[in-house]
Amino acid sequence: xxxxxxxxxxxxxxxxxxxxxxxxxxxxxxxxxxxxxxxxxxxxxxxxxxxxxxxxxxxxxxxxxxxxxxxxxxxxxxxxxxxxxxxxxxxxxxxxxxxxxxxxxxxxxxxxxxxxxxxxxxxxxxxxxxxxxxxxxxxxxxxxxxxxxxxxxxxxxxxxxxxxxx
Length: 166
Prior knowledge:
Elements: H1 3-22, E1 40-45, E2 48-51, E3 57-65, E4 75-80, E5 85-91, E6 96-100, E7 107-112, E8 125-131, E9 137-144, E10 158-165
Parallel strand pairs: 2-10
Antiparallel strand pairs: 1-3, 3-8, 4-7, 4-9, 5-8, 6-7, 9-10
């Protein structure tokens, strides 16, 4: 065997020994700190429906904490009731839903005061509406108040229920 090969083999063995001494097999890597992220989201199902005028449409709203921190101080969302849509009711465990059906801006305001742990959903809210104009294509917007938590991800703070009436 040449001296070069012997030296290379000895160097590789020395590096292996140093590595084995420097990083014991039982060592666990230090945890990487997770940034505190506030991210509240809302979903509505169904997202779209096609019904006869004056038929009821039942929908479900789910509010989720997709962030890494618990949300305190309550969550709320708003169901905007546009022209051509009549509101019938809304309810869900831990939620208090109050209709505000004025001429200027008809909406339903729902609030829950329970703490909201990261990675969890609040109990769903069921609401019922009906289209009052045949031939209409109307969006019912549901928006959650993510802005007040200092969050920077807003693309999941609203959802639409599209109602096409014949």
